[in-house]
Amino acid sequence: MTYQNYSLKQLQAIDAAHHLHPFTDHKELRGIGSRMITRADGPFIYDSEGKEILDGMAGLWCVNIGYGRSELADAAHAQMKELPYYNNFFKCSTPTPTLLAKKIAELAPKNINQVFFGSSGSEANDTAVRLVRHYWALEGKPQKNRIISRQMAYHGSTIAGTSLGGMEGMHGQLGGAVPNIVHVMMPYAYELGLPGESDHDFGLRAAKAVEDAILEAGAENVAAFIGEPIQGAGGVKIPPASYWPEIQRICRKYDVLLMLDEVITGYGRTGEWFAAQSMGIEADTITTAKALTSGYQPLSALLVGDRIASTLVEKGGEFYHGYTYSGHPVACAVALKNLEIIEREGMVERVKNDTGPYFAEKLQARIAPHGLVGEVRTFGFLAAIEIVKDKKTRERFMEPGSAAVTIRDHAIANGMMLRATGDTMIMSPPLIWTRDTIDMACDRLLMALDLAEADLR
Ligand code: PLP
């Protein structure tokens, strides 16, 4: 029996009875019923009632090549028939993760030549924490194990991912975090910049918070700093250009490793293959997932820099770590095809030179002037829209987050999917968006803003 044999109401009732969803208030959900997305094509998703919605989030920041790519289905099908599964433990390997690791190393910054696979961004970050702490232990400095992260960071939902992340709500439900992780201020000039402070100076001040945390702990106790090049789930917080080079300088000065979480930014979203390249920095680890397969299969890759890799190989013996699905052959076959498509269609260059700048220009020209919008930020194919009651004073609406949710609901009703995080609307479109798609997105978003304004004022 397929789902088409059920009515929407029946599916919603089954969903409410049996399916626990991620990041969902289930009591609230039972009242309204889930929106059932049943198919997708190109830049559009369709719900069970046939409604077409332009997907401004690329699923969950992942469907970079858009939906309906049968080449990926063919790659999965062929791999499943030939070798649906074998593991990479105990000195075995299979061809697709081997070739995928080589391909990723070719695309990555030049100090990266090794890759460890998992199935999710959270797993990759868990691996990164274990690896970084293991590295310092192998170097004879086991006490150098503190990791500095940032408020409002999102690094996943496992216990280590939640502990690394800086989301207070998540910490409140953790019942005990992984020890020795501290959080410092985020580079969010719109709310944390001082009157009269330039963006450049704010970036240096935000980076100094990392230096202060190193000095407070003692550099001999600090393993690494971890950060998303652009904080995604925390509200697309784009740091000033001065921030990342200063972070790199500080990490080098105190011999602290630099861990980048590129689960969102990896594979083209910033107009380079990796945001490390956009920011002009070199990291010791880079966590990636999502767009590695454009979300068609669950797969993550932890990119490991030469410094850590050579210690692991030369001094490490066996690293007691791995997942049943590390280097899953089907997921890796899909990833290889996905990267081939991104390359073949020149998507990264297009975001850098054409659609990315057009996206920025149109959002600034058409969305930023709206009465509910305090600021529009963009970088490549990432955008944040700050929602305010008063443009000049930056005063927010009374109930935090409520205005953004109102806008989001109008947007979905008007055929445009985007996300609300606190008082910020965020967008992360597929890299296939053309200038016409961007115009369509602006039309639908403007309509949602107008309707929300009528509700809110
Ligand atoms: N890191 C970042 C920056 C993310 O945005 C996410 C998910 O959105 C994760 C890690 C966790 O990835 P996953 O949900 O695949 O575990």
UniProtKB/TrEMBL annotation:
<dbReference type="InterPro" id="IPR005814">
    <property type="entry name" value="Aminotrans_3"/>
</dbReference>
<comment type="similarity">
    <text>Belongs to the class-III pyridoxal-phosphate-dependent aminotransferase family.</text>
</comment>
<keyword id="KW-0032">Aminotransferase</keyword>
<dbReference type="InterPro" id="IPR015422">
    <property type="entry name" value="PyrdxlP-dep_Trfase_small"/>
</dbReference>
<dbReference type="InterPro" id="IPR015424">
    <property type="entry name" value="PyrdxlP-dep_Trfase"/>
</dbReference>
<dbReference type="GO" id="GO:0030170">
    <property type="term" value="F:pyridoxal phosphate binding"/>
</dbReference>
<dbReference type="InterPro" id="IPR015421">
    <property type="entry name" value="PyrdxlP-dep_Trfase_major"/>
</dbReference>
<protein>
    <submittedName>
        <fullName>Putrescine aminotransferase</fullName>
    </submittedName>
</protein>
<keyword id="KW-0663">Pyridoxal phosphate</keyword>
<keyword id="KW-0808">Transferase</keyword>
<dbReference type="GO" id="GO:0008483">
    <property type="term" value="F:transaminase activity"/>
</dbReference>
<dbReference type="Pfam" id="PF00202">
    <property type="entry name" value="Aminotran_3"/>
</dbReference>
